[in-house]
């Protein structure tokens, strides 16, 4: 099936969510002015109170959707505790939205190492310097930590911190939403019972 077949006409006729998402993301990359891979990530803390924040999707395939973070951060701790999360992409230029939720697994060390090496040197230093989500007594303390790690890794490779890695959301549901007149939107949800299961497609009321 070609990209044109996926992105033109009635998308609700498509039966494979990952190919459809890939086509929508490619279109967003040509129309969104900033970060077409930006996505709202929702988690829940130990008391059941939800949290949401923006992250960047760094990869996806039929196994799931990958992003990276400090595992000692708030979102990292919440995901490690529950092993579940949800995402919401919204591309205003296309009037489209994709929601997904599912179970979460940690990416392999090899996968995390390979991605970490692609990051800008300053971002790799920042991963060491930032105690993400914890109180900061002042900007100077952060700048001092950056300076210290810059000096420590002035020459050669910068290793990945042991507390910094990636999560892969293996979706149990993926919903595609497309704006229509009079709020009579198109909504198609793909569902499955387990990450290895077959998809069931359901058309939803707007």
UniProtKB/TrEMBL annotation:
Pfam families linked: PNP_phzG_C, PNPOx_N
Cofactor(s) recorded in Swiss-Prot or TrEMBL: FMN
GO molecular-function term, one example from the UniProt record: pyridoxamine phosphate oxidase activity
Keywords: Flavoprotein, FMN, Oxidoreductase, Pyridoxine biosynthesis
Pathway linked to the protein: Cofactor metabolism; pyridoxal 5'-phosphate salvage; pyridoxal 5'-phosphate from pyridoxamine 5'-phosphate: step 1/1; Cofactor metabolism; pyridoxal 5'-phosphate salvage; pyridoxal 5'-phosphate from pyridoxine 5'-phosphate: step 1/1
GO biological process: pyridoxine biosynthetic process
Residue span(s) of domain Pyridoxine 5'-phosphate oxidase dimerisation C-terminal: 164-206
Chain positions recorded as FMN binding sites: 53-58, 68-69, 75, 97, 132-133, 177, 187
Residues annotated to bind substrate: 58, 115, 119, 123, 183-185
Domain Pyridoxamine 5'-phosphate oxidase N-terminal: 32-150
Domain of life: Bacteria
Record text on cofactor binding: Binds 1 FMN per subunit.
Entry EC no(s): 1.4.3.5
Catalytic activity entry: pyridoxine 5'-phosphate + O2 = pyridoxal 5'-phosphate + H2O2; pyridoxamine 5'-phosphate + O2 + H2O = pyridoxal 5'-phosphate + H2O2 + NH4(+)
Protein function: Catalyzes the oxidation of either pyridoxine 5'-phosphate (PNP) or pyridoxamine 5'-phosphate (PMP) into pyridoxal 5'-phosphate (PLP).
Subunit relationships: Homodimer.
Homology family: Belongs to the pyridoxamine 5'-phosphate oxidase family.
Name of the protein: Pyridoxine/pyridoxamine 5'-phosphate oxidase
Gene: pdxH
């Amino acid at each position: 099936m070609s990209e044109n077949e996926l992105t033109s006409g009635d998308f609700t006729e498509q039966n494979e969510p990952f190919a459809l998402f890939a086509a929508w993301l490619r279109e967003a990359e040509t129309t969104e002015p900033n970060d077409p891979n930006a996505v709202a990530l929702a988690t829940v803390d130990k008391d059941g109170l939800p949290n949401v924040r923006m992250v960047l999707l760094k990869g996806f395939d039929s196994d799931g959707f990958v992003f990276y973070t400090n595992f000692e951060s708030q979102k990292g701790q919440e995901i490690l505790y529950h092993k579940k999360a949800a995402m919401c992409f919204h591309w205003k230029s296309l009037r489209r939205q994709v929601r997904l939720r599912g179970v979460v697994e940690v990416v392999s060390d090899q996968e995390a190492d390979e991605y970490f090496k692609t990051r800008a040197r300053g971002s790799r230093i920042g991963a060491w310097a930032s105690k993400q989500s914890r109180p900061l007594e002042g900007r100077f303390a952060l700048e001092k930590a950056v300076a210290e790690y810059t000096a420590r890794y002035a020459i050669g490779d910068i290793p990945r911190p042991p507390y910094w890695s990636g999560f892969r959301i293996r979706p149990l549901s993926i919903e595609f939403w497309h704006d229509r007149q009079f709020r009579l939107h198109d909504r198609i949800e793909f569902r499955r019972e387990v990450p290895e299961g077959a998809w069931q497609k359901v058309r939803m009321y707007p």
